[in-house]
Amino acid sequence: NFPWYADANIYYPILAADLNNDGKEELVFGLGISDSIGYGQLKIINDRNKEFAFSPLFGEGGFTSPGVIFDLDSDGDMELACGSNSGILYIWDFPGTDVSWSGYMNSPKNWGYYEGELAQPQIADGLLGSFYIYPSPVEKDGIVRFFLNQEATVTIEILDMVGHKIGGAELDNPTANEYNEIGFDFTRQSNGVYILRVEAKNGSQREVKFKKFAILK
Question: Where is each Secretion system C-terminal sorting domain found (predicted)?
Fold first, then answer.
């Protein structure tokens, strides 16, 4: 469900805590958006890239930092404290009790040390992860972006709706465990629906994925 996009600056640090006590953590960060009371909001999203029920948070003068999360009143749950650009300290009370990254460097000691248990990395099934072409719809230039789970040779083909190949490329050494991109020129193609075909090969392993996209000029 990520990456998450915004037409504004994101202010660090990014805090991670289970604010509503549902067993899953939310991310808290500053977002440089102007509104009627200042510049900068506190944005909160969950692990599914959905906005939290109390998000965004506003304050007079706006915010350029997400502040700090801790149990201020020793009642067992968490508070979020943040100072605004107008010199006002705001505190919000949340029912959650677990926090894994509470503020700058994760502690008043500024150690930057994570005290929780790290999960073992999971090996993804298959060679190809998510893939798409942007912008959508394509006007003149389009960029194919794909995630490669393992080392492989990748072949990209652009097909019309009949299945005729109108363009493509082969990548011999794309980067594994990372997003890869390659651009295509569609200035000579007419408006319509086309097919993006991505094929990955690694020895005897082979995987092919298709996706429709539109060209609109």
Answer: 133-205
